[in-house]
Amino acid sequence: MRILRPIAPPLAVIALLALTGCGAGGFPAPAESSTESPSPVVSATPEATPTHPQDVDDEGDTPAAGVVVTSESLTVYAADGLQLFGTLYTGEVGLVVEVLTELLGDPVVTSTTAEGTGCDSDQTMYDYGGLIVRSPGFIGTVGPWEVEVTSAATASGVPISTVGGQRIGATRAAFEAAVGDEVNLFDFAPSTWFGFDILNPEAPEYDWVGSLARFDSGTLVGFNTPYLIFADC
């Protein structure tokens, strides 16, 4: 059985937020982080704590059965709810990609060059089929990399959900009923953008950190996290 240790979160700006994740897709809720002593998401089996994926015995590997992407963390679960991997959006992207590749299969890797708009940069994308890790993230990303979700499941068939168990293809009505803290940012028919899963709702709204969701004709087609909800770009 492969149990992968989460990556420790060195970035204080995220660790100091009031983290409030919800359970999604039938899997356990991500572990809360303390504002006194930042803690990573913790493995369900504390005695198995390898420091690197290669340190893990490959015999009897437990397959991934669900990915939960929230404003706080990216977590991969087995079918029985065992947490296989969890991380905040901090640290080097290389180890995150390495572990996700072992759990979800090889990504399609692409890169782009900044266009000089002031809202982009040279970026590398690791696409697991609807679950994209982008390094660095777009302007407004809180942390050195971001996650974009564009499909209800990865290319290897692992379901992807967010808070309230919501997945790509959800209706706007179902999303609003399940999420509960969404903020309508703007409408350009047929598209609507929402901020949701806000980590620091007690802060002034222009300091809110959360996720961005896009609906086309009332259907969820994608979301990105973690973001300053009211970033200029």
From TrEMBL:
- Composition bias, kind Low complexity: at what positions? 28-48
Signal is among the record's keywords: yes
Where does the UniProt annotation place the signal sequence? 1-24
Keyword list (alphabetical) reads: Signal
Q: Map out region (Disordered) in residue numbers.
A: 28-63
Task: Give the protein name, as stated in the record.
Answer: Uncharacterized protein
